[in-house]
Amino acid sequence: MHPHQLGVNVEVLFSQLILLGLTELTYHNLNSGQYARVVRDVLLMLHYRLEVYTACDGEWTLKAKGWLGCLGDFEDVVGDSVELSELSTVMALSSTVEHGSDENRLSIAFCNLQDMRMTIAEFSDTDHFSNLEVSARKFFFNFLNSPKNSLYKPSRS
């Protein structure tokens, strides 16, 4: 992967070459601060899946992997970061009982605090709140899989 794809400044992180078998690869030595910054940028800002490999005895070994929905091996690097708290989504819910009906009228709103995107829905539901459960699952699935493009409109029941 080229350093520009990671948003890494080439002048700060000097490239070096390694020969593994017959393959010549470019690599970077990172101190712990640089490593943490690259991991946070790749996972939290660019929303990429990240895998880190190490070369040992001419073989590649997977050292760590993770993505936005499952930080996995990067939990300790990303866990306390400011960027993670900025990815929070706030949910508000209002429930009213419709007169002459056994259904609840639900209004639900989600606000992504990072890019100030709001998603709002209103629908009827039973006392078991099954439509609410489906709506929340669909929203979070869309949010984790395509956070920049998700516009969610729940189906009417």
UniProtKB/TrEMBL annotation:
Keyword Glycoprotein: no
Transmembrane segment boundaries: none
Superkingdom as given in the UniProt entry: Eukaryota
InterPro entries: DNA_mismatch_repair_MutS_N, MutS_con_dom_sf
GO BP field: mismatch repair
GO terms of molecular function: ATP binding; mismatched DNA binding
Signal sequence extent: 1-25
Keywords per UniProt: Signal
Protein name: Pecanex-like protein
